Amino acid sequence: MCLIVEYKPVFKLTADIFDDFSMMNDDGIGIMAAVNGRVKVSKHITVRDAIAAHQQLSAVPHFLHFRMRTHGAVSIDNVHPYDCGHGIYLMHNGIITDMPHDTELSDTGVFVRDIVTPLFGICKNPHSALRSRAFKAIIDLYADGQRLVFMDGEGPVIFGEQWHIVTKKEIKRCAGMRVSNTYAWGYQYPTRCDWDELEDLRAYRLPSHVPSHIPRLDYQPDYQPDYQPIPDYEQSAFGAVDDDIAILQSGGRRAIENMIWSDPDAAADVLEALL
Fold it and tell me: What residues of the chain score a pLDDT lower than 50?
């Protein structure tokens, strides 16, 4: 499930806060910052290395991602952010269901590889596409309500609802800081998590040091999506932008995947009209 933190220089992320945030999210920490028109990225397995990298960027706003593995291996490759090509990177908090299973790559990694990177690849201007209503509509098909942060040299583009603003009662030194959830914090700082209500979290692997009353189950997706064309999709008339977005939304994931894999030239024409 993970945790994304939006850091600004007015906050003070100390070692004890890093330890707390990584208590349940101990499978790697990544950092990304827009500096001088480019995205600076660092990825780390150990908290100590992540703290050192963060301190080097402490004067610059940046995002941190604390990973809790749900799919794929524990490796530097699966530490966020993911490279989407064209100088665009992605951090994600959530689980993108029904992606093709990959024993090494996480669900977010598969999403970037199979959907996001090909989409940007057929756009004339991926950076404009990133900030368009059409791209948001596509993201909503896969991760509606989940928290995602894309970043290019111009800065972050943030998706998702229910971001949390840290209060003084929670972490005084970071009051006002935006984080992607409160349920994946550790136990040094207060959290309002009711484990009995987090049915979705119970289905996924949790770190061994989480208290024993939290169930630990291994999850493997049993759904392998196909990429067959949607009937009459290619015969649809593309008119106004809102109509095109409605077609994408009504067609769902298979419409997007069919566009990417079956007819990328047509997809490029559609996206050009949308974006």
Answer: 189-241
User: Domain containing 127: what range?
Assistant: 3-179
In a domain, 216, yes or no: no
Beta-carbon contacts of residue 203 (< 8 Å; ≥ 6 apart):
217, 219
Report the C-alpha gap between 274 and 135 in whole angstroms: 9
| Domain assignment of residue 108, yes or no | yes
Distance, CA of 199 to CA of 22 (rounded, Å)? 22
pLDDT of res. 194: 42
Contact of 2 with 66, CB cutoff 8 Å: yes
Query: Do the domain assignments include residue 208?
Result: no
- pTM, two decimals, is 0.75
Count other Cβ atoms within 10 Å, centred on residue 52. 12
Q: Is the sign of the CA dihedral 102, 105, 111, 115 positive or negative?
A: negative
In whole angstroms, what is the distance from residue 159 CA to residue 260 CA?
22
Please report, for the domain that includes residue 84, its CATH number: 3.60.20.10
Which SS3 state, helix, strand or coil, does residue 6 take?
Answer: strand
Q: What are phi and psi of 190, to 5 degrees?
A: -65, 145
Task: Please report, for residues 33, 83, 103, 127, 248, the alpha-carbon distance to residue 152 in angstroms, rounded to integers and kept in the order given.
Answer: 9, 10, 29, 7, 25
Count of CB atoms within 10 A of residue 41's CB? Answer: 18
| DSSP E strand stretches across 122-188 | 147-152, 155-159, 164-165, 178-179
191, part of any domain: no
